[in-house]
Design brief:
This protein is an alpha+beta fold. Helices cover about 35% and strands about 45% of the residues. Strands 1, 2, 3, 4 and 5 form a five-stranded mixed beta sheet that branches. The longest helix has 21 residues.
Length: about 190
């Protein structure tokens, strides 16, 4: 019984820490200028490390970049980040990404990702949805190092390509996770 009580206390502390970390507030909110600066640098870093991403960027109808997502957890986890949607190199909107997870997991990690919208319908879905969960949106292909070497930009067949980059820290475990992307005002 003592072991169960300790476990329950640990879970409650983790949930309280998660709630505090994900609570909206001025400490977490970046300005539009900060987000734009980080998105520009993030795309430069991604393009320097992955030429296929740069090729995709030239053909994309829009690119949604989250340059600094923080993910952490111990059994209960969460992540949060802010980013910008670029069309023709200019920011046209700001978004946040939020996720919660439960499962066998522990650690803290910072990473970034960029979503390349290759079709107008996929980009319109982002604008019309008012917030959507990854997995319920149009078809998304996660591009890893192996796929990036064989990706042909002349025969693109999917609506959205996603690249993870700038991973730092350690997050280990298995968990169920749903990521929601929502448009925000800056």
């Amino acid at each position: 019984m003592k072991m169960y009580s300790r476990f329950l206390i640990a879970v409650m502390i983790a949930m309280a820490a998660l709630a505090w970390a994900l609570a909206p507030g001025p400490a977490l909110a970046a300005s539009a200028a900060e987000i734009d600066r980080e998105v520009t640098q993030g795309l430069k870093d991604l393009y320097a490390k992955n030429p296929k991403a740069k090729e995709l960027g030239k053909k994309a109808k829009g690119i949604l970049v989250f340059p600094g997502i923080v993910k952490g957890g111990f059994i209960v986890g969460g992540q949060y980040g802010e980013g910008a949607l670029r069309k023709n190199g200019k920011t046209v909107g700001y978004y946040n990404t939020v996720a919660a997870s439960w499962g066998l997991q522990a650690g803290l990690q910072k990473f970034a990702y960029a979503m390349f919208f290759m079709t107008e319908p996929s980009l319109k879905y982002l604008d019309k949805s008012g917030g959507w969960e990854l997995g319920t949106a149009p078809n998304i292909v996660v591009v890893d190092k192996g796929l990036a070497t064989t990706l042909s930009t002349t025969k693109l067949q999917n609506a959205i390509y996603l690249f993870f980059f700038d991973q730092k820290g350690l997050m280990a475990g298995l968990g169920i996770q749903g990521t929601k992307i929502t448009k925000i005002t800056k």
